[in-house]
Design brief:
Radius of gyration: 27 Å
Order of helices and strands: HHHHHHHHHHHHH
Oligomer: single chain
Shape: elongated
């Protein structure tokens, strides 16, 4: 309710998460390990950052979806019903809760297997020690603090991941639905109206890639495994941006085809078969020029190259974050 910028809100939330968990770690006499654990700081910021941008997306989705109504040849009442149905699905408290719960159970199961049943996963502690920068004290099961704090962080991560996953899944079905709707045959209008939702998807994709970058910075040494993991997770961000673009591309191509069909019918209706075209155009000089303007091939993609450059820069940051730990190790003389 303070209407803070999203970045400022994320920083304040990160501080709140850090201090709250720190007080619990202090009560469990684990605070000295807590304050020197690099992933704690990255995790707090990542949780707050993703949550802040998820909230940003959920708060703007209704107006973005409602604004698409001008693109379709539908009665206003019909599109309002469609928009209301999908807004309700995107913001479904039950759906978001179940998704968060599923991710929390997954996180807690991972903590349990990691700490108490390592043999079931083929010695994951060795793998985690190789890839991340958690001090060995976090692998202890002799005290309550490690499993409890890891479960708390798992639940907080599940809030971000679960909400984002729900929005991602609903968006897939939303795109499948709007792909079948009839669009108005005016490419320029479509591009103008679809730019807003394109920018929305671009921000969502960049936010995801920044979250991937924070996760990538936890890897101790870049290798084939870490590159594969980061590349796979990054693909979600690219899919979020480009999947709608193929649908919008189809809109624009179909709109231009309809205009061309109309121009052919109009031309045949005005110009008799085997008529002297030159004589007819002398009488109606503006006809050919108007038909050429009407059927001039328009842009068939809503995004422009600036959007792609920004997205590729986001991916470069995500992959470049794999070098953070080796650089810190080199600068500090660590092993």
């Amino acid at each position: 309710h303070l209407h803070l910028p999203t970045a400022a809100s994320a920083i304040l939330t990160a501080l709140f998460v850090y201090v709250t968990v720190y007080l619990l770690a202090r009560a469990l006499d684990f605070h000295q390990v807590y304050v020197r654990t690099t992933p704690v700081y990255l995790g707090c910021f990542a949780i707050a950052w993703v949550n802040a941008w998820v909230h940003w997306g959920v708060s703007r989705l209704p107006s973005v979806i409602t604004g698409l109504g001008a693109c379709y040849q539908l009665d206003e009442t019909d599109y309002t019903a469609i928009a209301t149905k999908w807004i309700a699905r995107f913001t479904s408290s039950k759906g978001i809760f179940l998704s968060i719960l599923a991710w929390a159970l997954l996180a807690w199961s991972a903590v349990y297997l990691y700490l108490f049943q390592p043999d079931l996963l083929g010695h994951p502690k060795d793998l985690v020690a190789k890839l991340t920068v958690f001090p060995v004290e976090w692998q202890s099961t002799a005290v309550l603090a490690p499993p409890l704090l890891l479960c708390i962080f798992g639940a907080l991560c599940a809030m971000s991941a679960g909400t984002a996953f729900w929005l991602f899944c609903v968006n897939i079905f939303f795109l499948r639905h709007i792909k079948r709707l009839p669009v108005v045959p005016i490419p320029g209008l479509l591009i103008a109206q679809l730019r807003r939702i394109t920018q929305f998807y671009l921000v969502a994709s960049l936010t995801w890639l920044l979250g991937v970058a924070l996760f990538a910075s936890l890897f101790r040494n870049p290798d084939a495994l870490s590159l594969s993991v980061i590349g796979l997770i990054s693909a979600v961000g690219f899919f979020t941006f480009f999947a709608p673009q193929f649908i919008f591309h189809r809109y624009l191509v179909h709109a231009h085809e309809r205009i061309a069909d109309y121009a052919v019918l109009h031309f045949r209706r005005l110009v008799p078969p085997r008529a002297d075209l030159a004589e007819f155009l002398r009488i109606e000089p503006g006809l050919l020029a108007s038909l050429i303007d009407l059927t001039d091939p328009p842009r068939t993609w809503v995004y422009d190259y600036h959007d792609v450059i920004v997205l590729l820069l986001g991916e470069a940051v995500a992959l470049g974050s794999l070098a953070v730990q080796p650089m810190l190790k080199h600068l500090t003389g660590g092993t």
